[in-house]
Amino acid sequence: NVWCAAGKGTFSTEELVNRIRLTGLDQVVRHRKVILPQLGAAGVSAHQVKEESGWLVEYGPVRAEDLPAYLESHRATREMRKPRFSLVDRIVLIPVELVASFVLFAIAAVVLYFVAGWMAALAAVVALLAGSALFAVLLPWLPTEDFTTKGLILGLIIALPFAAYVYLGEGTLAARALTMLAYILILPPVVGFQAFGFTGSTPFTSKSGVRKELLT
């Protein structure tokens, strides 16, 4: 998305100026104004674009669906300026997150099935669904601000039923304790890692916040 690209520098002043020149935009239109998504402002310096290319940067609305109304007056309403990340918006992103991790988790599930049994394989599947789907749904209600910690908490929650099943199962106390510990120690970091990847899909994280999570 635009916010993520602006944050990591691929939607930037340099790239914008370069594309204006490469496309010969000045030969296509008579004006010298380019409208950018509002969330791209994190990566673009309007005055530098003006100095280097002669083009004036105008920041449009957050959402593309508001562009027709914005173009009528070139004035954004308060609602146009407000980033939204509703449940529907988050659910739309779930397939993207699932596809990105599906192959890795599918391989892990198959290997775990033959090495440790169906419960371990199920845990891999549940971790994928929790980190990619359940996290997106529960995002606003999970405690703490950083996404990794939110994911760790969610991972611990989904690990508890597995630990309880093992506790009530058969085998020696030592064997059950080790298996329970494995679920409790492994699932939270896996879900936390999945959750961290979601930072680039949201409109309310910050570059400093993401950098802090990376370093800690």
SSE layout and pairings?
Layout: H1 2-8, H2 13-22, E1 33-36, H3 46-53, E2 56-59, H4 67-73, H5 78-81, H6 87-116, H7 118-138, H8 147-167, H9 173-196, H10 207-215
Helix pairs in contact: 2-3, 6-7, 7-8, 7-9, 8-9
Radius of gyration, Cα only, in angstroms? Answer: 23 Å
What structural class do you assign from the helix and strand content? Answer: mainly alpha
First-to-last CA distance: 25 Å
Oligomer: single chain
Question: Low-confidence runs (pLDDT<50, min 5 residues)?
Answer: none
Write down how many β-strands occur, each being a DSSP E stretch of 2 or more residues: 2
In this structure, how is the largest beta sheet organized?
2 strands, parallel
Query: What is the strand content?
Result: under 5%
Taken together, the total number of domains comes to 2
Please state the overall shape, judged from the principal axes of the Cα atoms.
elongated
Overall mean pLDDT: 86
Strand order of the largest sheet: 1-2
Helix and strand run: HHEHEHHHHHHH
Helical residue percent?
55-70%
Summed up, the helix count is: 10
